[in-house]
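Can you please make up a whole protein chain along with its backbone structure tokens because I've never seen that pairing?
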Amino acid sequence: QVQLKDSGGGSVQAGGSLRLSCAASGDTVDKYSMGWFRQTPGKEREGVALIHRMGATTYADSVQGRFTISVDNDANTLYLQMHALRPEDTAMYYCAAGVCVSDFSYWGQGTQVTVSS
């Protein structure tokens, strides 16, 4: 089974950019649909961006046009490029993998993103 390790979070000012990475081991990412989720205390976990195993991508309305999800099969790594960050993007971000987008079974440990105004 695949193991995921996410990284790249940090503190930035509004309008800034960050790139999150999710390094996979134990299996290859091209076998999975993958995604980025985020959660803040007291709120439901929110799907941010998904990339289907065949390559199609979907985004939450709140990040459309600002975030880009991608996979580098050679590096066996999932990325989330985030631009024009807003304070409301502040959350713990998690990468996930699954056999399909409705069944994410494998999760990273999370990386914190904090956006100040």
